[in-house]
Amino acid sequence: MSTGAKRRPVLTGMGVIAPNGIGTDAFWKATREGVSVLDLISREGCGHLPLRVAGEVRTFDPASVIEERLLVQTDRFTHFAMAAADFALADSGLDTASGSPFDVGVVTATGSGGSEFGQREMQHLYVQGPRYVGPYQSIAWFYAASTGQISIRGGFKGPCGVVCSDEAGGLDALGHAAGNIRRGVDAIVVGAAEAPLVPYSIVIQLGYEELSRSADPGLAYRPFTSAACGFVPAEGGAMFVVEEESAARRRGARIRAVVAGHAATFTGAGAWEESREGLGHAIRGALDQAGCVPSDIDVVFADALGVAAADRAEALALADVLGPRAGHVPITAPKTGIGRAYCGAPALDTAAAVLAMEHGLVPPTPNVTDVCHDLDLVTGRPRSVELRTALVLSRGLMGSNAALVLRHPEGESL
Fold first, then answer.
1. Residue 31's closest CA among 352, 277, 322, 253?
2. What is the pLDDT of residue 97?
3. pLDDT in tens, 242-281
4. Which residues contact 176 (CB under 8 A, 6 or more apart)?
5. Does residue 409 contact residue 256 with C-beta atoms inside 8 Å?
6. Over pLDDT 70: what percentage of the chain?
7. What are the start-end ranges of the E strands in 152-286?
8. Number of helices and strands (H, E) in the chain?
9. Which residues contact 140 (CB under 8 A, 6 or more apart)?
């Protein structure tokens, strides 16, 4: 751990577990082509529930990447996080064995926790009795499970934490990691993953008025349209390696993006009209921290809830900050093709934003055509644009708002 006058957090590794692909290459190929993988829920015990459509991760085999001794004591959401963390560390090329274990920390975010594991153990409790509840129930369901397992498995003893701030926690975790880098930590493994597609969790989600009940995968999640009927949930997420820039450059690491700015606000559950002011304030705060002005924004990865009042508030927040440019800056919401994975959603958007800057390509918003707001929403086909600054937005159903500014490393002065 070292301190200095100017310590910038940079992203050097990414790992993705998503409904449309395992790994960043598969994820980006499907995302840039606007492939929608939304489908009827196939998970056991969910067929009779009012929630019909979701984004499932169907090609992930946890046993192929995680040790058996850990599989039996962890939930699916932690399997996703551990696998994505492995991918991110490999992508970064960070040698975590040679330095001090206190140089590397872990931060994750989750909203649902270990629902699948918890449901199974509760069934054992009520059907067979308490003697049939496994000892790992006490830790597998817990929100901190992913952070704990990743840090123990990797031997990381730096600052570790869990962000519990609604869906926006996926961005807040990155903001937390960036703050630790600025304060002297060398590297943070950070991100979010969710696995909420089991009966126990879905029944809880049915209390959300914003949840889409449509049974048509092509119509179930269409934000910014007159036909918007809510959001479609999903599982999956992304993990990153964020490092201090000078240390990363000294070891010859590839700098994939600069984590330039983050800010968060809170405006209350279901108060979508109020989220206009809160989201706008978060955007301005993130831009200020990044040393950017609104005219620097080249692309926006929208929160895109799919609820008329929330979509209108987001469009107005962007207009408040960007002014007349709001109708001309490319905006996208790739999550309409994979679903909204709660805390994992903005983490996946962050991965897509980094890849978009690298490829100079704004991915489209699947299943959306008739945009009813004054926004330049990219639909149908990807758009070639020089991208130096990306803005990623997220809001939670309980009232959190967050904004993250990413910058292309070649667009930043050293």
1. 352
2. 87
3. 999 999 999 999 999 999 999 999 999 999 999 999 999 9
4. 107, 161, 163, 190
5. yes
6. 98
7. 160-163, 187-194, 236-244, 257-266
8. 12, 16
9. 73, 74, 75, 78, 114, 117, 118
Asked if 343 contacts 169 with a C-beta cutoff of 8 angstroms, the reply is yes
What's the rounded Cα separation, in Å, for the pair 168 and 403? 9
Kindly tell me if the per-residue pLDDT of 1 is higher than 60.
Answer: no
**DSSP states of 101-144:** GGGEEEEEE-SS-SHHHHHHHHHHHHHH-GGGS-TTHHHHTSTT
Using alpha carbons, select from 241, 284, 293, 238 the residue that is nearest to residue 263.
284
- The strand pairing partners of 10, in sequence order, are 243, 258
pLDDT band at residue 411 under the 50/70/90 scheme: low
Enclosing H/E stretch for 395: strand 389-395
- pLDDT of 51-73, one tens digit each? 999 999 999 999 999 999 999 99
Residue with tokens 């990743």: 150
In the structure encoding, which two tokens stand for residue 307, read together? 């609820």
- Mean pLDDT over residues 99-111, rounded? 95
Gap between the Cα atoms of 139 and 145, Å rounded: 6
**What is the distance between the alpha carbons of residues 180 and 188, in angstroms, rounded to a whole number?**
8
Instruction: In whole angstroms, give the CA distance from residue 122 to residue 66.
Output: 25
- For residue 209, the SS3 value is coil
Dihedral (CA of 381, 383, 388, 392) sign:
negative
The domains found in the chain, sorted by start residue, are: 9-250 (3.40.47.10), 262-408 (3.40.47.10)
Pick from 153, 358, 185: nearest CA to 256: 358
Rg of the Cα atoms in the chain: 20
User: What is d(CA 158, CA 169) in angstroms, rounded to the nearest whole number?
Assistant: 20
Q: How many other CB atoms sit within 10 Å of the CB of residue 323?
A: 11
Whether 187 contacts 9, CB under 8 Å: no
Angle at 344 between CA 332 and CA 224, to 5 degrees: 30
Contact 253, 91 (CB under 8 A): no
d(CA 6, CA 414): 10
Contact 397, 303 (CB under 8 A): no
Q: pTM for the complete prediction?
A: 0.97
- Confirm if 108 and 146 have CB atoms less than 8 A apart: yes
